Amino acid sequence: MKKLHDRYSIPVSKIILRTMKLTVILVVLNIVNCFASVYSQKVSLNLNNVKFSEALNEISQQTKLDFAYSKEVVDMNRLVSVSATNTDLKNILDRLLDGTELMHVELNGKIYFGPKEFESVIQSAFLQQQKKISGTITDATTGETIIGVNVRLEGTTIGTVTDVNGKFSLNISKPEGIVVVSYMGYNSQRVTLNGQTVLDIKLVPDITKLDEVVVVGYGTVRKRDLTGTVSSVRAEELVKSPTGNVMEAVQGKISGVDIIRSSGGAGAGISITVRGNRSINAGNDPLYIVDGIQYPNIQDINPNDILSMDILKDASTTAIYGSRGANGVIIITTKRGSDGKVKVTAGTYYGISDVTGYPKPMNATQYANLKRQAYKTNGIWNSTADDAKIFTPLEIAAINDNTFTYWPGLVLNQGSQQDYVVGVSGGTEKTKVYFSFDYFKERGVLNNDYSNRYTLRLNIDQAIFNNFKVGLESQLAYYDQNLRNDNILTVASRIHPNFTPYNADGSLAKFPGNGAQPNPLSNDVPGAYVNQNNITRLLSTAYAEWKPFNGLVIRSNIGVVNASTRNGHFENANTISRALSTGSLSSITNTTQTDLTWENIITYQTKIGDHSLNLMAVTSYLSNRTDNSTASGTGQLLAAQSFYALQNNPSNIAISSNYVGSNLQSAAFRFNYSFKEKYLVSFTGREDGASVLAPKNRWAFFPSAAVAWRVIDENFMKNLSVISDLKLRGSIGVAGNSAVKPYQTQSGLLLIPTSWNDQTALAYGLQPQTGNKDLTWELTTTKNIGLDFGFLKNRITGSVDVYDSKTKDLLYLQQLPTTTGGKSLLNNVGKTRNSGIEISLKTVNVQSNNFSWTSNITYTRNNERIEYLPNGSDIASSLIIGSPVKSFYDYKKIGIWQTANLALATSFGYKPGDIRVMDVSGPNGIPDGKITALYDRMVVGSAVPKYTMGFSNDFKYKNFDLNVFIFARIGQTFYSLYAEKFEPNAIDNGAVCDYWTPENPTNAYPQPDSKVSRQGLPFGTTLGYTDGSFVKIRNITLGYTLPSSLAKTLHVTSIRWYASAKNYFTFSKVKDYDPEGGGSLETPLTKLVVTGLNIEF
Amino acid sequence: MKKLIYTWVLGLFGLMVLLTSCNKKLGEYNPSGLTPSSVYTNAAGFETLVNAAYTYTRFWYGKEEGFSISEMGTDIWTSGSADVYPQLTQYNNLQGGNTAALTLEWNNFYAAINLCNTGISTIANIPDYTATQKATREGELRFLRAFYYWHIVETWGGVHFSTEPTTGIITTANKTPVETIYTQIFEDLKFAIANLPATTTDYCRATIPVAKAFLARMYLTRGMNAEANTLAREVIRNYGYFLLPKFADLWSMSNLKNKEVVWAIDYSTNLANNDHTTATYPYGHSNGSNNGHLFFRMVYDQVNTSTLIRDIPYGRPYNRYMPTLSLLNLFDEANDSRYSGSFQTVWYANKASGTVKIGDTVAYCAKTTIPVALQSPKYTTYDLAKVYAANGVPIQNKFYVSLSKFLDPTRTSINEVQSARDAFVIRLAEMYLIAAEAKLKLGDADSAAYYINQIRTRAALPGHTAQMQITAAQVNLDFVLDERARELCGEQLRWFDLKRTGKLASRIQSMNPDAAKYFQPFHALRPIPQTQLDAVTNKDVFTQNPNYN
Fold this sequence. Notes:
The complex is a heterodimer of chains A (1097) and B (549).
Chain A: H1 12-34, H2 36-39, E1 42-51, H3 52-63, E2 66-68, E3 79-88, H4 89-97, E4 102-107, E5 110-115, H5 119-127, E6 131-139, E7 150-153, E8 159-161, E9 167-172, E10 178-182, E11 189-192, E12 198-203, E13 213-216, E14 219-222, E15 230-234, H6 235-238, H7 246-249, E16 257-260, E17 271-274, E18 287-290, E19 293-294, E20 306-312, H8 315-318, E21 329-334, E22 340-355, H9 364-376, H10 387-390, H11 393-400, H12 407-411, E23 415-427, E24 431-443, E25 450-465, E26 468-482, H13 488-492, E27 529-546, E28 552-571, E29 585-608, E30 611-634, E31 651-675, E32 679-690, E33 699-709, E34 723-737, E35 749-751, E36 754-756, E37 759-761, E38 764-766, E39 769-770, E40 778-791, E41 796-815, E42 824-847, E43 851-868, E44 887-890, E45 893-896, H14 902-908, E46 915-917, E47 938-942, E48 947-957, E49 960-970, E50 973-975, E51 1025-1027, E52 1030-1041, H15 1044-1049, E53 1054-1068, E54 1086-1096
Parallel strand pairs in A: 2-5, 6-12, 18-21, 39-42
Antiparallel strand pairs in A: 1-3, 4-5, 6-9, 7-8, 7-10, 10-11, 13-14, 15-20, 16-17, 18-19, 20-21, 22-23, 22-54, 23-24, 24-25, 25-26, 26-27, 27-28, 28-29, 29-30, 30-31, 31-32, 32-33, 33-34, 34-40, 35-38, 36-37, 40-41, 41-42, 42-43, 43-48, 44-47, 45-46, 48-49, 49-52, 50-51, 52-53, 53-54
Chain B: H1 2-20, H2 36-39, H3 43-55, H4 64-70, E1 77-79, H5 86-90, H6 100-122, H7 131-156, H8 178-195, H9 208-221, H10 225-238, E2 261-265, H11 292-295, E3 321-323, H12 325-329, H13 337-342, E4 343-344, E5 346-348, E6 361-365, E7 380-382, H14 384-387, E8 402-403, E9 423-427, H15 428-441, H16 445-459, H17 465-468, H18 477-488, H19 494-501, H20 504-511, H21 513-516, H22 530-535
Parallel strand pairs in B: 6-7
Antiparallel strand pairs in B: 1-3, 2-9, 4-8, 5-6
Helix pairs in contact in B: 3-6, 3-7, 4-6, 6-7, 7-8, 8-9, 9-10, 9-15, 10-15, 15-16, 15-18, 18-19
């Protein structure tokens, strides 16, 4: 099959099938009507025990009709008797066939005899005798053929649907009239025949897709009936350019969803927040639901398996998930099989990745000069004649030899990504199967940093009866990865540039230049640093669905997620972290996790006059169990034993194991009502009972309500031709954040290592974090007003949502007076608030036969702030009331004290060359001429952007397609570890920076000073805050699809070749660094150039 | 058939709905966690509580935080170049919000006291303890509670006091007069003496002499000099302790458990048994075990990197503290073995380079001025002129005479911060000095001189015993403090000694110019940690110590 509509969670094929049947019946009825007069001819007969053939001859003579039959089927010698006077022909034929398994059909003035089940054969035989209109229906934007398109002759009941190749044929009496072509998700087209018999029609996608179905919690709803805020992403959007993690593909494409990839390491995760950060202690990750089952490991999912992704954002849609819904819900529906022709898709790509930029530490000359300046400040160095005072003989030799090692360059390489995927879908009317295999391999930019992912999926739907089906969705993900997590780049950026990594004999130096820094290349030696994960995760869901009568659906899902993870870790004695310790370090950690979900859903849908009702009720049981064990030891003799023989470690043998379990039981309902399909209301509620809470708070109720008004359907809108769609939505509801970890209501004991007489003794003290028996859910109340609109026959469509979400009972690790013996307690005390606006726009800019240009624009502006904390702003944790959760609180650097300001600088207690910070305030609320921690620190920035924008453009010219996607994240600050890496005493290498000297009165960096360390540099932390705003061309993809005629010669349905440049162009104020990386020097982000091929059979 | 299946399906569905809505599954199962109610209920479990109650001493003894509070800001030490808490060393900008050392100790002392309170209030309910076991363990817990409260009351004054375990959410704290807290300390220690055994097979468990020695210190602190003298004398005479013949032997790693030690923190040679933070003990100390070897060491590895490099015997030089010139001048090194027994002045080459052979002198620190002409060109001399100005202010604070009492050459690597060295809390010499001070205060200078001479006789270099003897006329409070400095410097008693004798201000003024610059009388109490002040809800009652706002 070429193209299925992708909005359905229920099999599309079934609907198509039904439609086809219906069409056939209509055709038959039509024919019967046309030729009704033939059957009503009157015949008189009086035959007794004559051959059937004789009887027919007799009738033929009277009526002048022809008969057709197959001798193999129809026994012409059978003896029949009939006696009738002036009787309808039909009646007589019925009587003649009485007692046989035969039937008669009157077509085109001819009467056919045959077995009853041959009806359709006869029909088609008949239809060929008609005037045949045929053609192919294709998508005007993609050029792909479309299956299941309804083709109908206007004003008649003659019609059909397109087949798996997008082809149709219609038999009509004469090629005149108007053919109406319609398909869900596309604008209908009317074609006047005027004698044409071949029609090749291009359907233009209907951008509003009013009949599009949106997946919401525990069900689907037509987009036109939606009262809440849901963003949907089409399958092809997810695979437009290759990505390892599917969420990367939607960065910037969904308004209200902030997606950041902050690490370029192999298999690195992605951080996602929906409508801002609500929680301080709890995570802000959204809830992922895959085929109805909670599944947090989104990176496991093969993007090609996804049929649709729907992001629930407002409370009226998330409250159905109760205590888990507050951070938004991302629902993933995977592809199903369909009957008809087996469809095989295969794809592969290969790409080369490279760091998007890496800020270089100083070169040997720059470093030597910094050190000289540092000592010059203290009068120790005055000219190169004094070099011996500050450099070791080795260093002086290196300076003279111009030795320069660019250490990060020695450890950074090119990485790669490759992927091989095959998917097969097929089935019969009753059994439908989809299965796929995906192998994704990523090599990071550091040696031995790699991740292999194997994903296998099997989805089966089996109808047992017409109204009862069962099925299975099953996915296995296996990872084999080795992740570098060893601070190698931090060390490489720090080690002196005039040292070389090798000894005179060519061996690797443990401490280059006899310095204090271990050699980063020690970690690059094969087997020296091992951090290997073997992860297997199985997600398997079985369901049974019964539709006892029209409108009622009863469904039960049981899902099991089983994960086993093994981390093996080894660092030999020379590695960065062990060089300063004794011997190697080995450890192994095994984790087993089992999540069980069992949900029962009843849905009832009915329509009484203008009133439509949709009722749904759910019961749900979730259980999560995790246990793990860890063993470690140090100092084994043979590095080659890695982490496989921990018993050979002589020292620091340590073991531990742990169990964590929780249960959640729930009941939920949803009530949707619409009047005249114009006025819509919806209520949901969920009652959650959680084991993690104390008995008295165990059960909580999460309600929501929403209304929508389809303004466009009102009479007064009929004349406004400019506006083609208009809907107003409003909702309010409460959802929770499942932030409470198990056992937080219990005060625990702490095992304290101790001994008597050198013999280990057991000691259990009290945990500093005391249990809170009053713990309850963090509750977020969200109000949302939204407007969906379409202009110019939906050439421009979009929606605007304005929301205000307030979180109360915020889980906060409240600091206790430690005189109680405890330190802290998780308590429901804080408040946060997120309000904002999100806009998404889709426009068809150009639409012509050969060329089209469509755009997709998103804009998100969120105002995140903490509203209340029990002890006011928590400065130690940078939690400032009125500011976002992720804020930076520090002094504000306004430059460097200059010689001209000597007197003023002295009055503040500083000297020229020191960092000058703003005197913000004092005890009396006005600047007091002193810099104090209490009065002069302020929020200097936040990691949260002021707004984000996405601008995606799709161009199509003939068989070429081009996607250009621009992403902007504006107004955030990040803490640049590079910018902050100014070493005033040149003890380590650091950033290339413009530092102050009496001769160079800059305002950028302070004066080097051999007596001041980086940690001791007054206000040194202010150097790191950097404007992180960026605009990047996230993706450019050029594709070419082979014309179908050529594809046919290769016996494939389609072939598309593409090449992408990902993350290649970033515009920001930061040099040599991708600010999306958030300031870390350790895992720089990568850019990727990739090419691939997609084939369909 | 179809009908039958549907009936079954419907029936099963109804059953499932019923099952899922049952509430039973919502109890928590926590096999890997422990709670007081599951552990502190029988003898075996209660033993773990008592063991744990001892472990909090490790946050003070042998730790930088403890050294900074108990030894720094006195007459005998000042900041090395890498001092982390100059506010404690010099009283400059000392605040409750910027001194993590104070917060660490405050938190852990109160955690310890709450654990002791929990044990003391529930020990009566332990069914399988014998009466003797009960008495012993309660004696230990009360001894420890008194011990912890002493640190609190001397450091912060009349702050929060409770003998009840904390239950429920408490967000207030009280201010209790010093006198009330001492009343409890005396009551607890008397209980301990009455109930503890005289000896123990677990080295460093509290015993009668331990409690008596500590009570002697408490009596002296509170001016109850006769009682202090009596108890000190009992400890000296009755429990088999004696002064080691050679002062230097006290600090040998192979001789830690000797008969001069009354009570110590017994850091295990199996470092995993100590208090280093690990994944399984996240609330431990960031360094763990005894770190005393790190802090008092000058950066010998920066003298000449080609001949003198960091090695295990010389230790890892953290360069935190340096002696005041006054401390060095207290020693008469010609007669007193305690100068060389306490300090390192010479460093020898541990790397051959050029003409320098291993064992050749590389650095020499002297407390006198050596004429340049007499200084050897073969090694670096840090004489008085290169280290201290005439008024005692350090000229530089990287190269100086370094306390060597706590060195640990048995560490397995150069950079190992953990040492298994026991931290001496009470040793017999202190009992002599308590007895002497008590007698002096009682007006018996003769006896005071007698006790001090016992100490000085042991300290005398061979053949110099006579020169070390003092007369009753020489004894005064300053002399006792001088003698305590010579004997106990670095042993985490100095700040208490100066406070007890009322000499904190005067001796800082006369002996420590760095600290004198900022010291104010209110500094005799430390600031209460800001985190505590932020967390209490009765902020009008529980206020910061005076003048720290």
